[in-house]
Each structure stands twice: as structure tokens, then as C-alpha cells.
Design goal:
The protein is an alpha+beta fold. It is built from four helices and eight strands; from the N terminus they run E-H-E-E-E-H-E-E-E-H-H-E. The strands form two sheets. Strands 1, 2, 3, 4, 5 and 8 form a six-stranded antiparallel sheet that branches.
Length: 163
């Protein structure tokens, strides 16, 4: 079993509910256990500005799945929740599930790059990740707190937990 961190994001079709459903689906993955997840955070979209704000979170999953097996499983969850892959990058979506970290591995394959591309500069990834793994050391040997120091919290809003 390896500890994997997964980024979750949605800005369509009740985003907070999309993330809750995705967390339930992650907990049901074979050879895997959902360990914990962060609070939900609202953030401005990275892509075209004429789209709704995103809701984001990070989940910690212990898994025995191989990296590409996990990627396939995550893409199935996205599709089951109405995700349609379009040519437009960073456009609106019902659900986006990204493998941020896979243990201490560095993966560079055509379908998968880990650590996730540009996560070091994305507050909507780093702050939820720090909430559940504040002492994490990145695959390059740097502590997560170093990445946080270079990435301001500005633009993020931690959402209240549902009642």
C-alpha cells in the first residue's frame, strides 16, 4: 500500500455535492482505503474567467493499485459523474480528479505525471493538502511548508462543513 494524494475539483452541477460523491467513490475503490480528506475550498477558475468558481479538496488514499490502474479508476469516477473531456483546457467541469502525489515516486509517462504538473504554484491544491498532511515531504526532498511559503492563500475561501 502506498499513500496517494488526490486533488478534487468541480465547478458544475452542485460542485460541493460532486466532491462528496467522489469521496464516497474513492472510499469504494478496490485495494484502497480513503484515509482522510480536507475541507472544501472555493477558488477562482484558472482558465477562462467566464465560468463559475471551483470547489476543491484533497484526499489521502492508501492504495495497492498501480499508478495507471488508479488513473483509470479515477477517470471512470469522473465519467460516472458526468465529466466530458473537451479540447479546451481548464474549462468548466463536473469533476476533476488528479493524482497529486503517489508515495515518493516521480512518474513521467505519457498519461501521467507525478508530482502533478504545477501543483507547487496552486493554492487550491497546497492548502487543502497541508490541512491533511502538514509534515509532508515532497518527492524532491523539500517540505510542503516550503512550497506553501511561496504560494499565498489569497483567493481561497475555506467553506464551512455541512451541517
Amino acid at each position: 500500500m502506498e499513500r496517494v494524494y488526490i486533488g478534487l475539483g468541480s465547478n458544475l452541477a452542485e460542485p460541493a455535492e460532486q466532491l462528496r460523491r467522489a469521496l464516497t467513490a474513492l472510499a469504494a475503490l478496490p485495494a484502497s482505503q480513503l484515509v482522510r480528506h480536507s475541507s472544501l475550498y472555493a477558488s477562482a477558475p484558472l482558465g477562462p474567467p467566464d465560468q463559475p468558481r471551483y470547489v476543491n479538496a484533497v484526499a489521502a488514499l492508501d492504495t495497492g493499485l498501480a499508478p495507471l490502474e488508479l488513473l483509470d479508476a479515477l477517470q471512470r469516477i469522473e465519467q460516472e459523474q458526468g465529466r466530458q473531456r473537451k479540447a479546451e483546457r481548464w474549462g468548466p467541469r463536473t469533476l476533476d480528479l488528479d493524482i497529486l502525489l503517489f508515495g515518493s515516486r516521480i512518474i513521467d509517462e505519457p498519461r501521467l505525471t507525478v508530482p502533478h504538473y504545477h501543483m507547487h504554484a496552486r493554492a487550491f491544491v497546497l492548502y487543502p493538502l497541508a490541512e491533511i498532511a502538514e509534515d509532508l515531504v515532497m518527492p524532491d526532498g523539500r517540505p510542503l511548508v516550503d512550497w506553501l511559503a511561496a504560494c499565498p492563500f489569497a483567493g481561497l475561501e475555506r467553506l464551512p462543513a455541512p451541517a
